[in-house]
Design a protein that fits this description.
Helices cover 22% and strands 29% of the residues. The protein has a 4-stranded antiparallel sheet with strand order 7-8-9-10, with no helix packed on it. A 3-stranded antiparallel sheet has the order 1-3-6. A 3-stranded antiparallel sheet has the order 2-5-4. With 201 residues, it is α+β, with helices and mostly antiparallel strands. Helix 2 packs antiparallel against helix 4. The protein has a domain of 138 residues: ADP-ribosylation fold (Alpha-Beta Barrel).
């Protein structure tokens, strides 16, 4: 099973263990893993903290590179959802066995954030939740799905929807309240957000 029918989000993320140079070069060096596999390993916003816990468990700090997929596509880069790995994205060059168009660097990296945690007492999922709450880790597919649902609900009274590729359960009721429940892995219970609104006339 793949996510081939799901659009690649506008922003995907690369985790690196050391601070990138400033100013950014045209192209950052490939990691050993990326060079070996022939593509650049990336994560969407919902997956990046889990990827950090899997591959950067021994690091006190990492840097997140926010990659603008629209710019990369213009240069010829090709994004593919990883098979059987929800939230994981692979970036290939425009032609087989080349890196042409597949680069991380000046012009393609939109922003960089340093994440620092208390090693041994805090995992990356908990640490990076703050970045998500501040809107920096953007899951654009989720936002678009919510907006689409809200539009449909203008003609309905209630809906409960499980969002694709996530643990998000949406309960939407009009004209008064939208409930957002996010089941967090490794935590008991649900964290609930509440947004008030009114039905459009």
């Amino acid at each position: 099973m793949t996510d081939s029918n799901i659009p690649i989000p506008r922003f995907v993320y690369k985790i690196v263990p050391s601070q990138p140079p400033s100013p950014l070069p045209h192209s950052l060096p490939l990691s050993a893993l990326d060079a070996h596999d022939g593509f650049i390993h990336l994560s969407d916003a919902s997956q990046v903290a889990k990827t950090a816990d899997l591959f950067f468990a021994d690091f006190e700090k990492v840097w997140l590179l926010q990659l603008d997929t629209a710019v990369v596509k213009i240069e010829g880069g090709i994004f593919v959802w990883a098979e059987n790995l929800p939230g994981c994205v692979h970036l290939y060059g425009r032609e087989k066995d080349t890196w042409d168009g597949a680069r991380l660097g000046e012009g393609t990296i939109r922003d960089i954030k340093e994440c620092r945690r208390h090693l041994g007492t805090e995992n990356w999922v908990d640490n990076m939740r703050n970045q998500a709450e501040q809107g920096w880790l953007v899951d654009q597919l989720l936002l678009l799905s919510v907006l689409s649902l809200c539009a449909h609900l203008l003609h309905a009274s209630r809906a409960i929807v499980m969002m694709p590729r996530s643990n998000l359960l949406l309960e939407l009721t009009f004209p008064t309240v939208l409930f957002l429940q996010h089941s967090k892995e490794g935590h008991d219970g649900l964290v609930t957000s509440k947004v008030s609104g009114t039905r459009a006339s």
